[in-house]
């Protein structure tokens, strides 16, 4: 069983500004848990920029989590595809440490808001799974709740960076929640997520 969640956020900045800010979104006041970031690979393929970055992040563990995880730091891989022709930035992130305890895979599509081309929409999807016998549902529920909290903080922090770079009134732009839904998936293969490479074709 895999826990699945979707939502949309609205950034009051142009798509090109959001894309430029995306590469500079750390540090910000909401990202104190991000310890490091490194570019592992970057190349242009068919006029699209493909990037792979590695992040080291930390999160406070609940007491029960200390039974399974002996470190508060976790490595996160981020793969992204920037298409300047279609004006889309698609990112895929997943944790590479302790994935058997709780694996989190997130896909975000940044694109021009059709209703207001001077703003940008971020469509976010996340899959959470756990292989801990007898506790997988509880761990997935915990992971989903933490993801929602962290997602809100991430949007707020990103808006802070964008406002610092381009100005504008973002006092109420912690990310406008346009739509959100939560559902259960019987198997990960039923979704558009594919193990191994994070690129979805």
Number of strands: 8
C-alpha Rg (nearest Å): 17 Å
CATH class term: Alpha Beta
How much strand? 35-45%
Question: How would you state the average pLDDT, rounded?
Answer: 84
What spatial form do the alpha-carbon principal axes imply?
A: globular
Could you describe the largest sheet, including whether it forms a barrel?
A: 8 strands, antiparallel
Number of helices: 2
CATH architecture term: 2-Layer Sandwich
Order of helices and strands: EHEEEEEEHE
**Helix content, binned percent:** 10-25%
Please identify which CATH superfamily we are dealing with: START domain
Give the domain tally: 1
Written account of the structure:
InterPro entries: PRELI/MSF1_dom, Slowmo/Ups. Residues 2-170 form the PRELI/MSF1 domain. This is ACYPI001929 protein. Pfam families: PRELI. It comes from Acyrthosiphon pisum. With 201 residues, the chain is of the alpha+beta class. It has one domain: START domain (Alpha-D-Glucose-1,6-Bisphosphate, Chain A, domain 4). Helix content is 19%, strand content 39%. The protein has 2 helices and 8 strands. The protein has helices at residues 15-22, 136-166; strands spanning 2-11, 34-45, 48-58, 73-83, 88-95, 103-112, 120-129, 180-185. It has an 8-stranded antiparallel sheet. A hairpin with a 7-residue loop joins β6 (103-112) and β7 (120-129). It is globular and about 50 Å long. It starts with a strand and ends in a 16-residue tail after the last strand.
């Amino acid at each position: 069983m895999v826990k699945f969640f979707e939502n949309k956020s609205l950034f009051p900045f142009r798509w090109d500004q959001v894309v430029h800010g995306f590469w500079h979104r750390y540090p910000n006041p909401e990202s104190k848990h991000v310890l490091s970031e490194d570019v592992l690979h970057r190349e242009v393929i068919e006029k699209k920029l493909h990037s792979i970055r590695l992040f080291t992040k930390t999160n406070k563990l609940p007491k029960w989590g200390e039974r399974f995880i002996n470190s508060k730091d976790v490595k996160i891989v981020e793969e992204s595809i920037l298409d300047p022709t279609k004006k889309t930035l698609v990112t895929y992130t997943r944790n590479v440490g302790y994935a058997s305890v709780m694996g989190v895979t997130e896909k975000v599509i940044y694109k021009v808001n059709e209703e207001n081309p001077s703003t940008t929409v971020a469509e976010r999807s996340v899959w959470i799974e756990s292989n801990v016998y007898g506790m997988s549902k509880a761990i997935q529920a915990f992971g989903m709740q933490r993801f929602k909290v962290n997602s809100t903080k991430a949007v707020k922090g990103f808006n802070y960076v964008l406002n610092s770079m381009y100005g504008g009134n973002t006092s109420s732009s912690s990310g406008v929640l346009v739509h959100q839904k939560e559902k259960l998936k019987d198997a990960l293969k039923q979704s558009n997520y594919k193990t191994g490479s994070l690129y979805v074709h």
